[in-house]
């Protein structure tokens, strides 16, 4: 690993100022992706700007309108263990508890995960399915506009994610077929239901990264049941193929994971 400067700003303004002065500087959240890539020589930032000391970037809170806000520097383990998340969005807590392993869950952060936008990461599927709002130091970005492709987001230079906001009265369930080594999603599907509206977001499968499966959304809006999906699957030509799974297998897994997520949501309704 090459030499680099290390900064620990105390405010967002200080972090932005450091980034403006050094074009080679990179933000450091939990470091679960950046540090390994630096060790491999795949990333060579001139400086790291650690966000952990900046107040207001961690924490989980309910808003007066019933929405849920989670600070960008909140680690996965805290999301999974939060009684507030478990009450308002139990599916999101369950998803956070499935991310990687215990070490990663205690270091990795919500903001770091979505800003990196790994095509097999878990959180982006939940945010897209839940129609979440990503709040930065400059603006608010709907999830539909935030995720733009493989490792690509709508974030501009030196823009910093501060909070993610989830709308009230929405349920979500996430089903994942994961790699046994990394626990990244070979296919992960988040299904969210709010009233009669249904959104289905798929991670790990798309050739261009995260995507909404609109055919499944339409079918489940008409009839929210596993049977509504029939036998149709996403077009394999739009899916990724690699050493873990072919496009055809990922198409089949997408349907299966969607059905599992739907069944989870239906079981929660029964328990209510």
C-alpha geometry: globular
Q: What would you give as the CATH superfamily of the domain at 171-271?
A: CO dehydrogenase flavoprotein, C-terminal domain
Q: Which fold name fills CATH's third level, the topology of the domain at 171-271?
A: Enolase-like, domain 1
Could you tell me the number of beta strands?
A: 14
Query: What's the CATH class label of the domain at 171-271?
Result: Alpha Beta
Task: Output the structural class.
Answer: alpha+beta
* Strand-residue proportion: 15-25%
In short:
By secondary structure, the protein is of the alpha+beta class. Helices cover 35% and strands 23% of the residues. The termini are far apart.
What would your notes on this structure say?
The chain is of the alpha+beta class and 272 residues long. Among the domains are: 54 residues, Uridine Diphospho-n-acetylenolpyruvylglucosamine Reductase, domain 2; 101 residues, CO dehydrogenase flavoprotein, C-terminal domain (Enolase-like, domain 1). It has eleven helices and 14 strands. The strands form four sheets. Strands 4-5-10-6-7 form a five-stranded antiparallel sheet. It has a four-stranded antiparallel sheet with strand order 11-12-13-14, with helices on both faces. It is globular and about 55 Å long. The termini are far apart. The mean pLDDT is 95.
List the SSEs and their pairings.
Layout: E1 5-7, H1 12-21, E2 25-28, H2 34-39, E3 47-50, E4 60-62, E5 68-71, H3 76-81, H4 83-88, H5 90-97, H6 102-107, H7 110-116, H8 123-129, E6 133-136, E7 140-142, H9 143-146, E8 147-149, E9 152-153, E10 161-166, E11 171-178, E12 185-194, E13 197-203, E14 211-212, H10 214-222, H11 247-271
């Amino acid at each position: 690993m090459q030499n680099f400067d290390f900064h620990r700003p105390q405010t967002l303004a200080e972090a932005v100022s450091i980034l403006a002065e050094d074009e080679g500087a990179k933000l450091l959240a939990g470091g679960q992706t950046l540090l390994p890539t630096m060790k491999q020589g795949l990333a060579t930032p001139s400086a790291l700007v650690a966000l952990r000391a900046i107040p207001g970037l961690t924490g989980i809170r309910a808003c007066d309108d019933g929405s849920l806000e989670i600070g960008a520097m909140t680690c996965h383990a805290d999301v999974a263990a939060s009684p507030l998340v478990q009450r308002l969005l139990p599916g999101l807590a369950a998803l956070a508890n499935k991310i990687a392993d215990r070490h990663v869950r205690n270091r990795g952060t919500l903001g770091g995960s979505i800003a990196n936008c790994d095509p097999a990461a878990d959180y982006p599927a939940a945010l897209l399915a839940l129609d979440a709002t990503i709040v930065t130091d400059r603006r608010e970005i709907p999830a539909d506009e935030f995720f733009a492709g493989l490792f690509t987001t709508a974030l501009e230079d030196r823009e910093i994610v501060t909070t993610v906001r989830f709308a009230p009265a929405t349920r979500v369930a996430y089903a994942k077929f994961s790699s046994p080594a990394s626990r990244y999603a070979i296919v992960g599907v988040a299904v969210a239901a709010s009233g009669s509206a249904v959104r289905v977001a798929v991670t790990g499968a798309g050739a261009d990264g995260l995507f909404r499966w609109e055919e499944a959304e339409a079918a489940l809006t008409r009839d929210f049941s596993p049977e509504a999906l029939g036998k149709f699957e996403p077009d394999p030509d739009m899916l990724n193929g690699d050493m873990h799974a072919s496009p055809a297998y990922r198409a089949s897994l997408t349907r299966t994971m969607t059905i599992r997520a739907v069944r989870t949501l239906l079981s929660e309704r029964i328990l209510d």
